[in-house]
């Protein structure tokens, strides 16, 4: 992992090897590979002679001040990631209504198939009339919000682990009326995607749903 003293404003470069998990059946270790690397529970030499180099530089001051001093380095196209939570001083008129959820894992039956499924999870937000909300799902800073979110697909794996985090961006007045629907499809190379299961969770039930793990009942 990349660790160093960043107490000054000098630019520093860090290199890390590109990791691979193609030696494991179905790439099942991919979602937790970073955790294994941090805990050093598994060793993976990575791809030989293949590395990712990242340059880091720390700036002091507000965003406007940094842009004024370094207009070429910090332009309008730079993605801004806000810190989760409020600052120590909350300014008048500052409103924030971010809701994050993590698609952790799913356990699915093989059914009558001889091979396990290739499962894709699709996420949409619907209002109380069943209409899909537009441009309310964000997969990260720097990208436009989307109407839906689709996970990566694990090949032949019925106990898929995704660990993907998505942010819901909704006006405060619409938040209590909406729910999140999770759709699961089997993806075949020869046939169209087949919806085989779905589940949902309300964003508000008198109060905002609690932080923590939630197990959803899936319907066929």
Automatic annotation (TrEMBL):
InterPro entries the record matches: C2_DOCK-type_domain, C2_domain_sf, DOCK, DOCK_N
A molecular function GO annotation: small GTPase binding
Ranges of Acidic residues composition bias in the record: 1-11
GO cellular component, as recorded: cytoplasm; plasma membrane
Cellular localisation: Cytoplasm
Alphabetical list of Pfam families matching this protein: DOCK-C2, DOCK_N
Chain intervals for the UniProt region annotation (Disordered): 1-31
Protein's GO biological process: small GTPase-mediated signal transduction
PROSITE patterns hit by this protein: C2_DOCK
C2 DOCK-type domain location: 96-220
Protein keywords: Cytoplasm
PANTHER family documented for this protein: DEDICATOR OF CYTOKINESIS (PTHR45653), SPONGE, ISOFORM E (PTHR45653:SF12)
Family under the similarity heading: Belongs to the DOCK family.
Protein name as it appears in the record: Dedicator of cytokinesis protein 3-like
Lineage: Eukaryota, Metazoa, Spiralia, Lophotrochozoa, Brachiopoda
């Amino acid at each position: 992992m990349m660790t160093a003293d960043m107490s000054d404003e000098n630019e520093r470069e860090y290199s890390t090897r590109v990791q691979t998990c193609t030696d494991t059946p179905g790439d099942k270790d991919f979602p937790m590979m970073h955790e294994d690397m941090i805990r050093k529970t598994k060793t993976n030499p990575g791809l030989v002679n293949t590395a990712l180099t990242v340059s880091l530089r720390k700036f002091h001051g507000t965003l406007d001040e940094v842009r004024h001093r370094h207009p070429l380095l910090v332009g309008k196209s730079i993605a801004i990631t806000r810190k989760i939570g409020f600052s120590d001083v909350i300014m008048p008129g500052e409103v924030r209504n971010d809701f994050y959820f993590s698609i952790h894992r799913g356990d699915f039956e093989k059914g009558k198939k001889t091979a396990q499924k290739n499962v894709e999870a699709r996420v949409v937000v619907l209002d109380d009339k069943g209409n899909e909300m537009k441009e309310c799902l964000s997969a990260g800073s720097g990208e436009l919000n989307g109407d839906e979110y689709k996970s990566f697909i694990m090949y032949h794996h019925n106990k898929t682990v995704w660990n993907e985090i998505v942010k819901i961006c909704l006006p405060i007045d619409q938040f209590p009326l909406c729910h999140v629907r999770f759709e699961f499809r089997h993806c075949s190379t020869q046939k169209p995607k087949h919806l085989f299961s779905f589940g949902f969770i309300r964003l508000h039930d008198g109060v905002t749903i609690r932080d923590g793990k939630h197990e959803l009942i899936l319907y066929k």
